[in-house]
Amino acid sequence: MSFIAWIYLLSLSFIWGASFYFIEVGLVYLSPAWLVCLRLCSAAIILSAYLFIRGRFLPTSLAFWGAVGVMGAINNLLPFFLIAWGQVFVTGGMASIINANTAFFGVLISAIFLQAEPLRLHRLVGVGLGIAGVATAIGFEAIEGTSASIYGSLAILGATLSYALAGVWGRLKLASWPAMEVACGMLICSASLSVPAGFILSGMPSLSLFQPENLPALLQLIIGIGILGTALAYPLYFRILALAGASNLLLVTIIVPIFAVGLDAALLGQWVGARQLAGFGLVAIGLAIMDGRYRRPKSRNN
Fold first, then answer.
1. Is the pLDDT score of 188 beyond 90?
2. Which has the closest alpha carbon to 233: 217, 258, 256, 216?
3. What is the structure's pLDDT at 302?
4. What ranges do the domains of the chain cover?
5. Alpha-carbon gap, residue 147 to 138, rounded angstroms
């Protein structure tokens, strides 16, 4: 993998790792539903403006908007809400470790719906290790119901399943459309859905974030999870995909928790324990085995 691809990959990992920190900050001021609304609306505005400046316009066909509407619901609105709600109960670092389960659900869901991606033995072993790692990170006492964090952990697991389903939906229904137009249309749809969802789930939003003394926090959230964590993340994601391929892109899943845990510890004083670190270790090994990276001969480009 080239040097510039590594720069992009580490940048995306840091941005997505920092998103878990910004969600924790945002939950001080807004409910999970309205925090997601702020994230999606700001990202949709920024990405739409970017495409307009580039002279690119969104397709007008009903097939496109129907497909991106579903994609927006299962790749943005639902998982963003579940992660934000989950972080009411667990730290951002813990959430990022559980979120790595997306790759494992992705393999299982793809094997069910996509004939081109069968569930081979090394993938099955990797998935098994990954699931064991997530269970270790959550803690067996939480699974038995002795910890309130089980609710947040299960919500984030639900988000990873939603992401996995979205990945299959995108490959089946949106592969023929340009990636940036798909991302922008998806964000427009999910942002539009997030406003009524906010009122239904949380009523009127708190206006404390819009008071003069809290405007720096508002700006921080718009930049952190709206512009960087969502709008900028998509161009970076597709750029890495073009430069390094889907296999190397999987490394993001391993690196994100490192940044998320580090930022939580440095900025919020929230440390993960030995059990969570052991769980993350199993997740990382599972991802490596599932990807097949350990079996490949070394080369200058990989």
1. yes
2. 256
3. 47
4. 3-295
5. 10
